[in-house]
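In this supplementary section we document a worked example of the pipeline. Step one takes a protein sequence of length 445 as its only input; no multiple sequence alignment statistics are reported here. Step two produces a three-dimensional model, which step three serialises into structure tokens for compact storage. The input and output of this example are shown verbatim.
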Amino acid sequence: MAVVQSYAADHILLEVMAVVAMIVAYLSCAPPNVYCVENVVSVPPSSWRVTRDDMMTIFKTQSSFEESSVEFMRRLVEKGGTGESTHLSPSWTNSKDGQTAHKDSIEGAREEAKQILFPIVQELLQKTKLKPTQIDILIINCSIFVPTPSLCAMVCSEFGLREDVLTYNLGGMGCSANPISVDLAKRLLQNMPGSRALVISTEIMTHNLYTGNSKGFLLQNSLFRCGGCALLFSSRRQDFFQAKYKLLHTVRVQVSDEISYGCVWCGEDEKGIKGVALSKDLVTIAGKAMKKNLTRLAPHVLPIREQLKVPLTQAAIMLISKWKKMNLPLADMMTVPKGAMPSFSKGIDHFCIHAGGRAVIEGVQKSLCLRDEQMAPSFTALKEFGNTSSSSIWYEMDFVERFGGLRRGDRIMQIAFGSGFKCNSAVWVAMRVDQSKKGVPLKKD
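The serialised model returned by step three reads:
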């Protein structure tokens, strides 16, 4: 009792204990951190590889294309930014012989999905030394191909995941679906502390050859390629020591006006031929959506001095404009400043901008005032693998790991655009650098 009374009389000790109790209470209430333990990207079989000449042979083999359509796609292929070693599924590559027409089938699409998904899941499990039964959550996003049974069911059946694994199959969300999957995994993991999530992003190309002659629909034939990524996320505290990245922020923006809603549209042309139409206003709409996303993201990643640029510049524009309108003294000597964009390079070390096409990447570069070397991950991913839809930002992350000079503590921003119209972003901090990857190209078969 005397000891307790002496402690009670010690005001400093009581204050220290109160502070410790507050810290413990705060930590117990705060959501757990979410880590990316490992990330793997797909390199499809060498038999799927296509050059630009192969692409033109494939197009010419389809008897439905008019000469003007073939010429239009040729210009797109040459100027789109893709290189000589991208990949397409056998339903396309069979046409490289100049005689076999494209065959669209559900079984062909299923086989393509197996060839993409199974190897990257197997590699991820080997790298993390996990058993499939240690996965608590499975999330797969694929926009166009949404079969029954689902892609999640396909992976569960192949690898023997637990019967109580939580599965989510996301479709129709376009090229920005990976950050959506990441955000969903984050929310689930934070509500299930100590659990693991396997996230897979892909796009299956078997169904994606448009065989009509409407220019808006022909764009898809020249842009998209096969690919995918598999990611292991965890909210287990002990995974702090082996994690590659910690997730700092996710921001999702959905722009719902009529023009934005229809700028990427899966439908039929005037002759009833199915395809995905891309609007000529796509780059402009993507820029507007990105501005809304970055406005929300900026307070989380930028120093105060960069955040103040925009409101201070807007105030100066309003003040000087009114001054000149009222023709006050020295009005002729004043110039209305241009709108300001904060420098995200002040808060972000590496940028992974969705490789949607050369025009999209160049538009983002101009808007964010980024240097060529900062855009290298996006341009390289586009050249080496094409637009692999939702997985493209992880091909770019892989490039950053190999050639981007990634260091522990660096912050990486991924930003992607998708139908609807959506702009979604994720910001990571590097916790571990895989030295075995540095300077080593991603091996192709």
